Write the structure tokens for this entry.
Amino acid sequence: MAPPLIQLKDIKLTFGGTPLLSGVELNVAPSERVCLIGRNGSGKSTLLKIAAGIVEPDGGTRFVQPGATVRYLPQEPDFGNHKTTLAYVEAGLAPGDDPYQARYLVEQLGLTGNENPANVSGGEARRAALARVLAPSPDILLLDEPTNHLDLSTIEWLEKELDSRRGALVIISHDRRFLTNLSRSTAWLDRGKIKQIDRGFASFESWRDEVLAEEERDQHKLDRKIVDEEHWLRHGVSGRRKRNVKRLGNLHALRDQRRNYRGTAGTASLAAAEAEQSGKLVIEAKGVTKAFGDRIIVDGFSTRIQRGDRLGIIGPNGAGKTTLVNLLTGGAEPDSGTLRLGANLETATLDQHRESLDPKSTLAEALTGGRGDQIMVGGKPKHVVGYMKDFLFAQEQRGTPVEVLSGGERGRLMLARALAKPSNLLVLDEPTNDLDLETLDVLEDMLGDYEGTVILISHDRDFLDRIVTSVIAPEGNGKWTEYAGGYSDMLTQRGADLKRETAKVQAPVEKKEERQAAPSSASKRKLSFNEKHALETLPKKMETLHADIAKLQRVLDDPNLYAKDRKRFDDTSAAIARAHEELSASEERWLELEMLREEIEQA
């Protein structure tokens, strides 16, 4: 087995009372892909900073293999005095690193390199920070929430980029799909210690449940043993003093073990305050159009949203998702087209930017509006401390300023404020940002029980698949299309990944020397029999696949198919996905062979 690149041994760290980290062990081998899982506040980010050498622990040792390069992606990058994003990225290069990689990655991530770091958005800051840590091609990457503020196409590009690299990864993320696709090992930070398995995130939740169930059985056995020993103490003490003293000491040890047991953290109790039922028709848009200057954001979009629908809106940053939501909910006037809102609508909105939070106010003031100790939840008063506990805030945090709350805590605070208002239409803009996996599970359950209508903007593919009944995606030039089902269903029906209209993320291009080497290598060879045969037969195969796809698409074009025959919809969707994959592979193979043929003929 290869020696570890990074080894953390017996790491201890305490902030105030309960130890945050108590005897943590973590080994990361070359090329290993580790997802670091844990509740908000469990110390994941702190542990990653210790691994990066940024934070000193109270105890324990950190070992990094001599010569190994380590790069750390923080949640909030510090641009310092750098004048441009490219300068910031280039400053992360070490002597001997290829400066071309910095510009290449900046462009791949949809930046020009000339952006002023003082004025960039959250998504642009995240992309610049990613380019900075990726450019040196380090031996180990420590990534803290790398998908936050990224759009779907950038997340998918990042997955492919990381998967193609040989270096080791340690990833903290709330994005289940991202972790499932990349991780090969799971480190679970729970109550100050790490449990680790050589399986990726896909196996985590079932394994965690088994561990907690076993722990619960052990605690039950411990309780029974203490009861038996206490019964002996009261009724069965014999005259043998030495044995009795030892047994009494064992009882004290059992009691200490029970007293020092740290139970699992509580679960958020999320519930939306629901208003009276809305009308059956919630929103009807016909041909709505909106432009800003010469740029058309929404062009002739129509939809009909009924009570109980869960609508997901996706697209690149800057594509106009928020504008579309404002049009649909009556927050903005369309330039043309008509909008009809249903009867008795009561809307509650979650703003992803958290701009409505006063950083100087306390947690309690942010919930009550600075008016006493009561918060109105569903039109009824509730003590603010009790409501705080529903969202996993401790009573002691009542006077904590908003500006010192973690990202996950601010996310829960925004949810608490939004869900307190009676509603029958929930508009959620990136609700999953910074939430831990357990809170996401509770949020999913809450939305499943919510009787009203949900409009959801999200870049979390797994969350979309679990929640929404239809997806609206941009097609470019202000055109938006609605697809039945979740995100995966949308991809199946489109037959392609979501493309970026505003800042295209391209597939990696060949390096100059590789492009120049191709003709010389091609001139030394001839097409094989199999290559010639493929060139002759692939066009007919592609034509057949096109016909099959068109036939399957006609079946999916039935707008009622999803509702009336789910099995046929799923089977047809799966079939068209396979056909698209086969067609894409055939087209790529044919193009590769055709280019090779031309190079051989020109050599």
